[in-house]
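User: What would this chain look like folded?
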Amino acid sequence: MLASVESTEGLPLPSADASGDELFKMGLLYSTGQGGAPLDYVSAHMLFNLAAMRGSVEAKVYRKELSQEMASDEVAEAQRQAREWLAHG
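Assistant: Here's the prediction, encoded as structure tokens.
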């Protein structure tokens, strides 16, 4: 599920072949700060966005709820990171 490539913050990124379910579960970890993941709404939103693109209906719901708790610049950063991940995948 995790690639050896790391983001600029040093956090592991999902592998390019991660399923929607895997991306969703990873987003849950970041949105709650559990499982060794830091509490990071930007990363969680990015992962929910990617999971939604890969068919996770739950991720769409969580992404929407999370975006209501975030500032617009944070949502924009999450979307930018998702586009960057897709471009490098």
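Residues 2-88 form one domain. If you want, I can go into more detail on any region.
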